[in-house]
Design goal:
The chain is α/β, with parallel strands linked by helices. It is built from 13 helices and ten strands. It folds into two domains: about 240 residues, TIM Barrel (Alpha-Beta Barrel), CATH 3.20.20.60; about 50 residues, no CATH class. α3 packs parallel to α4. It is globular and about 65 Å long. Belongs to the HpcH/HpaI aldolase family. Citrate lyase beta subunit-like subfamily.
Length: about 325
């Protein structure tokens, strides 16, 4: 994978019209139980975009305090642990649980803040207001973190636009940035009273709605977990399907899933060659004072240009892991 994309990345660097937006790649968002120091230590050695130190679903009720204190000890020691090019995230418990306040107090007052807080089971504005109050009170100085919210119930799917909009408003004067939305498929199935099928057809509407709304706010959209972690063939199929919908990454529960996911959410060689060629052609036509132009028999408009730019941006921003 590294050799496959290095050559096409080198040609990207020649294009001067690229404007890189603030963006942290999270192709694979890998959950690691916060109470298991051995698994956490191993995770820090992996080539994975985002390590989600978990206080929530991956931790038994009796181990919540252990998870919290273990994660706090990591945040208090070495900010970047073994390497620098990954997002250090913490998934706290839901706002309406008895654990969230202590989770946030532990991680947001640590010596080194997590890069991202993952807030599960968000359903109404009150959850967001409470989180904003906690973050603003606990985070010191002018520091800011990224926030990713989870859409995991029928109510949350219905209110997804409202939740994203309100979070963005709270973030304007807060100590956090809304960076993305996670689609929580299994909790949604429980909310709907259904069993998830092998092809996930019953989740198609909600899955597409979440990514559509996320992109309307220029947010990352993290796709559902593939729970059969040994079935890498089906995982690849789901990843490609999700990427085609517009998802920028996928939740991961096992290290073996990471290479499949992170490769799937990179543009392929054909896409990169098309995008770089189109942007070079645009640059040449701009020098000649020409607006609209034809590239490979197709009239190019601004939405097409944005598609090409997105492909180039994604590859450039993930180049540190290539």
């Amino acid at each position: 994978m590294k050799m496959k994309f290095r050559t096409v990345f080198n040609c990207i660097k020649k294009i001067n019209i690229i404007s890189v937006r603030y963006y942290t790649p999270r192709r694979a968002l890998m959950y690691v139980p916060g109470d298991n120091l051995r698994k956490l230590s191993k995770a820090f050695t992996l080539d994975v975009d985002c390590i989600a130190m978990d206080c929530e679903d991956g931790v038994a009720l009796s181990q919540k305090e252990t998870a919290r204190s273990t994660i706090r000890s990591i945040l208090d020691t070495e900010k970047n642990v073994t390497r620098r090019n990954f997002d250090r995230a913490v998934r706290v418990n839901p706002v309406n649980s008895e654990f969230c306040h202590d989770d946030l107090r532990a991680v947001l007052t640590a010596k080194y803040l997590p890069d991202t807080v993952l807030l599960p089971k968000v359903e109404d504005k009150g959850h967001l207001e409470w989180f904003a109050d906690q973050a603003n009170a606990l985070i010191r100085d002018e520091a800011k973190i990224d926030l990713i919210i989870y859409v995991e119930s029928a109510l949350a799917v219905i209110k997804c636009y409202e939740l994203c909009k309100y979070t963005m408003e709270l973030a304007e004067n807060g100590k956090f940035r809304l960076a993305g939305v996670v689609f929580g498929s299994d909790d949604l199935c429980a909310s709907l009273g259904i069993t998830r099928s092998h092809d996930g057809a019953e989740l198609l509407y909600a899955r597409q709605k979440v990514v559509l709304i996320s992109k309307a706010f220029n947010l990352q959209a993290i796709d559902m977990v593939h729970i059969d972690f040994k079935d890498l063939v089906k995982l690849k199929e789901y990843c490609e399907q999700g990427a085609q919908m517009g998802y920028t990454g996928k939740q991961v529960i096992h290290p073996d899933q990471v290479p499949v996911v992170q490769t799937a959410f990179l543009p392929n060689k054909k896409q990169v060659e098309w995008a770089t060629g189109l942007l070079e052609s645009f640059k040449e036509h701009q020098k000649k004072g020409q607006g609209a132009f034809v590239y490979k028999g197709i009239m190019i408009d601004m939405p097409t240009m944005k598609q090409a730019q997105n492909i180039v941006d994604i590859l450039k921003l993930t180049s540190s892991s290539l």
